[in-house]
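Exercise: predict the structure of this protein bound to adenosine-5'-diphosphate.
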Amino acid sequence: MVGNILRAAAAPSVPPAPAIEPAQRLISIEGIARRYRQKHTGEVTVFEDLWLGIDQGEFVCIIGHSGCGKTTVLNILAGLDRPDEGVVIVDGREVDGPSLDRAVIFQGHALLPWLTVLGNVAYAVAARNRSWSKAKVREHARRFIELVGLSGAERKRPAELSGGMKQRVGIARALAIEPKTMLMDEPFSALDALTRGTLQDEVRRICLTTDQTVMMITHDVDEAIYLADKIVLMTNGPGARIAEVVRNTLPRERDRNQMHRLPGYYAIRNHLMDFLVSRSATFGDELAAGRAWSARSVPVVEPGREDAARQPPRGRQPLEPKQLAPR
Ligand SMILES: Nc1ncnc2c1ncn2[C@@H]1O[C@H](COP(=O)(O)OP(=O)(O)O)[C@@H](O)[C@H]1O
Ligand SMILES: [Mg+2]
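Solution:
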């Protein structure tokens, strides 16, 4: 440290380090394909030649129709399935099995029914930190139970909890192991609208404050616009592809209930809807018509960028950024 300071002082010609660190690539999906061999229909290619990079701290959503292979991609990232071609690199290492570095939140909550809320979270914490005392494990688990708003329910068992509460336990458990990556497969799809909104807020707040890297599958376009920095558009299967990546042009501090008033919101929404309604099926025609496209480096589009750059109309106040500090 002292040596570094002395060296820096002795070499004034060295340019100062950039104020902003270059983005650090955490996940690299490199040319993966998944195929199934079936008795009557022969080999089916679910998807192929998928390439995608995710940086540290990025929140990435994947959207695409049922059956295009979203869950399969997530399972491959989790190490629960293997690609037939290509590799996934996480933090410089090829994924070759499950790891506590990559927590998965499933559509169903997958809690251990015989354990309490505290027991479920503590079980994962203890698996992650084998040298910790029981007291330290419990204290750490309690902190994350509090973070997802479940204080007071620590002693309840899953059967005594609502769907929303169970999903909160799943989220607390995933966060408590402090994974490098959180993988979420439609985590809010089974919840009522009110609970879904609240949990989206919680997850967004926690991920922003902890710089968590997230890959999440969703069917819900507004959920993707609210949560994601980047939205990955998958075409319909079989033979699904990543058609393009939409960069979210809305300010990073955004309010779920006010988001539709932000300049650029409708441009993004319309772009996503157009993709789901028609382009996800006709993307092959776009390519046949000569559209320039490379699987390895798909287009990154920014719908609404011009709207976002424009000043808000006279008389309307800019939105207050949402308070992000933990409650
Ligand atoms: N074990 C399997 N054998 C054959 N086909 C499978 C198997 N698992 C998944 N598939 C097929 O792979 C495709 C993608 O599935 P999935 O990843 O669950 O899609 P999504 O999550 O996008 O709805 C589906 O068409 C499904 O039928
Ligand atoms: Mg799925």
